Every structure is written in structure tokens, then in C-alpha cells.
Amino acid sequence: MSIMSAKLPIIKEPHPQPLPAGGEGRQSTALAGWGSWGLINNQVDRISSPITIELKGLTMVQVIQGRDINLAQLIDQFGLQRADNEQFFLEWQQDLPELSDLEKQSLNEVKAEYLHLSRYQILKPVVKIVVLFPLLRLAGFYQPPFYIASEEEVRISSQDEGTIVRGRIDILVFHPPFWVLVIKAKRAEYSLEVAIPQALAYMLANVGNDKPTFGFVTNRREFQFIKLTKHDTPRYALSYTLSLNRGDDLDTVVKVLKRLAYLVRNS
Question: What pTM does this model have?
Fold first, then answer.
């Protein structure tokens, strides 16, 4: 697999046409990175087909927008495999920190505000303000050694360079010179299964990092973590789905984020 990259905070590639400021299909968030971390929001290009063809010299190149990628394409064209070892992804389950009473109170406020606002359709910018930003703050990602970038383009190509995947990261949390976390968010009516391939595609663009990359996908009320290692063969695993409406799941989300932040600080 060939990865096209630039300097941090993230890969910058000129897009063939301007990206729209909004759109029904734009809401998506994903969390990725061990030596780096970030929040990703994919812009939707208004094209009639999810796949376009470009000429690269005398070679036909298939271009896929990140929002349209699926697991089958990542497996067939990028060699991605799902890890079947239960020990592969323990970071979201073991040694999670306890939350203070003040942190638990903040999360109760996040739940209450979300439930109040969800009486009407909540657009992505509001989701980020009400749910995602407080979670990132409680996890400590606004403090050293972390930084945040947004609306940056990513582009990866298959090993034979016959397929290119393009997309935009909403927010990338990074710890120079690495990405720490990639976040992808979908609208509430979408299953998280729609966001996972897009998050994985962007995580594959984390160049030159021999540490695991972590991802985080959400549709406002559900959350799921992803771990990706690249080495010889890229492998990934998923956490259980956590829900804002179920027990202390939102507390667990913050605990996992804090755990990942701790691991990066002490790696």
C-alpha cells in the first residue's frame, strides 16, 4: 500500500473541486492514533457516482471518496484484516482510570443537554459542541502535549496505485510528530457500521508510525473505538458499542479516552 503524505498536522492534497460547506451526508467522526490522535469530519463531494476515474500518465486510477469506502474494498485493495485475537485490543478494557465526582457531574450535564436538544434534529456542528468537545476536554486532549487540527485532506493509494481514497478529517488530535486520534461522526439515523470503514481508511493514512493507531466513531448517541496496527499486514479490532442512553457507558467513553491520552504521554 502506498501512502501519500505531507508534514503534520496532516496530509494536504489539493482537491479536484471545491468542497461544499454542508450536506446531508457529511456528519461523521472517527478517532485514531497512538503516536497521534484526531477528530475527522468528512466533507461530501456532490458527484453523481461514488467512484470517479482519473488518468495518471497512461494508467486509469479509480478515485473513491472516503464516505463511500466499504470494508470489502479496504480488504481487497489495501490488504486490511480483522484481528481475531481477543488480546489484540485491551486498551479500551484494562487499567481504565476512575472519574472524579466533578467529571461525573459534567457528563450528567452532557447527557441532559443532549436529551433536551435531541427533541429536534441535531446537526453535526451542534453535536460537536454539545457532546464531542466536552468529552475531548475531559480526556485532557486540549492540554500539552496534544494539539488539534481540522478540515485537513487525506489521501491514500493501494499498493498498485490503481485505487485512491480521498477524504477530509474533521479534527485531528496529534502529538508531534505523530497522529494520536482520528474521530468520525455520523448522523443519528446512521449505523456506526457506516462510519467504521471511513475511519479505518483515514487511519491507514497515518504514515511512518509503528505504534497502534486508534479510532473513535459516533452517531451522537452511540460510540465505538477502533485499533489499527500496520506492520506487514494492517489489522484492526473494534470495541463494544457504547451508548449515551445506557447506564454509565458515557463514563466509560471518557475513561477510555483518558487511558489513550495516558498511554501517549508515557510512550
Answer: 0.77
